[in-house]
Amino acid sequence: MLIPHPLLGLRDAQEFTYLGDAALLNRPDGLTAPEAFNDYVYLRDNPAGVHRELWFHEQGDRSWLIVTRNTLTHDILGVELARDVALGAKGAK
Amino acid sequence: MPEAAVQPLLALTALGGATPRKAVHGVLTLEENPGLALASLALRRGTSRPTPFGIPLPDAGGWTGRDGVSIFWTAPDQWLVAAEARADSDFAATVAAEAPGCSVTEQTDGFAAFEITASTGEAPILSLMAKLVNLDPRRYGPGTATRTGLEHMSVFVIRPAPGRLSVLGMRSAAGSLWHALETAVARIAP
């Protein structure tokens, strides 16, 4: 599988390590919202189909990517730098 | 008290030799480069891009070099600055002076550098790259540098010129990297 890195172009998936659901970026405050934090830590969606995932370019430029991928077909529908997404979400607040 | 015997203190190369190792196979030459000085350069938030040694910092995947000093991109807002035959100097201090306001870290002793040159142009280098690393050799042409895996080791693959390929790897794995490179060079060389 080749992952189209936003900065470096197509790179082999072997260079990356997989973390999981990109919802991990939105961490609730564990002190003020313990219920939400429990769900954040223990509950994960495992969709058969389109999924937003965090991938780390470990043997590369060490950037975190958000890869939108269809888990049934392995089609990659979009790739963004996680940094841009996180900073964008911060700016929107 | 008798005077202590003065031992000859010799700097050894990454492969442990007193002189850099060299292997010639057909049109390809593989050589250890013990003189390469390295320093990493990172921008801090809100600082403007410096031009150390008069070299503009290259964009993602890029390499620029001039007069024995080269700079290549390693990550967003991060670069490695390399200089030939300056490994015995405090190169990080030189870079820090050239890049005010940036974070500069000494890297010379962390890496082992190997240079591969082809006497007949780019073709042998392209087939060597295809054998060694999982990158598209056409995309990583002259003026590019990238970090990737080579036999489970992390390396920087640099293309300073059509007939040249530089590989920087972990100094502690210099022997394994040399073995991987020399085996491939010997098999590719016509």
Task: Write a short abstract of this structure.
Helix content of chain A is 22%, strand content 35%.
Topology:
The complex is a heterodimer of chains A (93) and B (190).
Chain A: E1 2-5, E2 9-12, E3 17-21, H1 34-42, E4 50-56, E5 64-70, E6 76-81, H2 82-92
Antiparallel strand pairs in A: 1-2, 3-4, 4-5, 5-6
Chain B: E1 22-25, E2 28-32, E3 37-42, E4 63-66, E5 69-75, E6 78-83, H1 91-98, E7 103-106, E8 111-118, H2 123-132, E9 144-150, E10 153-159, E11 164-170, H3 174-188
Antiparallel strand pairs in B: 1-2, 2-8, 3-6, 3-7, 4-5, 5-6, 8-11, 9-10, 10-11
Which features does this protein show?
heterodimer, A: 93 residues, Folate-binding fold, two-stranded antiparallel ribbon, 22% helix, globular, B: 190 residues, Gyrase A, domain 2, five-stranded antiparallel β-sheet, 17% helix, sarcosine oxidase activity (chain A), Sarcosine oxidase subunit delta (chain A), SoxD (chain A), SoxD_sf (chain A), TrmE/GcvT-like (chain B)
**Outline type of chain A:** globular
Helix/strand order of chain A: EEEHEEEH
Q: Major beta sheet of chain A, specifics?
A: 4 strands, antiparallel
| Overall spatial form of chain B | globular
Q: Class of chain A, according to the CATH hierarchy?
A: Alpha Beta
Assigned CATH architecture of chain B: 2-Layer Sandwich
List low-confidence stretches of chain A.
Answer: none
How would you characterize the overall build of this protein?
The complex is a heterodimer of chains A (93) and B (190). With 93 residues, chain A is of the alpha+beta class. Chain A has a single domain (2-92), classed as Folate-binding fold. Helices cover 22% and strands 35% of the residues of chain A. Chain A contains two helices and six strands; from the N terminus they run βββαβββα. Chain A has helices at residues 34-42, 82-92, and strands at residues 2-5, 9-12, 17-21, 50-56, 64-70, 76-81. In chain A, the strands form two sheets. A four-stranded antiparallel beta sheet of chain A has the order 3-4-5-6. Chain A has a two-stranded antiparallel ribbon with strand order 1-2. The mean pLDDT of chain A is 92. Chain B is an alpha+beta fold and 190 residues long. Chain B has a single domain (22-188), classed as Gyrase A, domain 2 (2-Layer Sandwich). Chain B has three helices and eleven strands, in the order ββββββαββαβββα. Chain B has helices at 91-98, 123-132, 174-188; strands at residues 22-25, 28-32, 37-42, 63-66, 69-75, 78-83, 103-106, 111-118, 144-150, 153-159, 164-170. Chain B has a six-stranded antiparallel beta sheet, with helices on one face. A five-stranded antiparallel beta sheet of chain B has the order 4-5-6-3-7, with helices on one face. In chain B, a hairpin with a 2-residue loop joins strand 1 and strand 2 (28-32). In chain B, helix 2 (123-132) packs across helix 3 (174-188). Chain B is globular and about 50 Å long. Classes of the chains: A alpha+beta (93), B alpha+beta (190). Chain A: GO terms for molecular function: sarcosine oxidase activity. Chain A: This is Sarcosine oxidase subunit delta. Chain A: InterPro entries: SoxD (IPR006279), SoxD_sf (IPR038561). Chain B: This is Sarcosine oxidase subunit gamma.
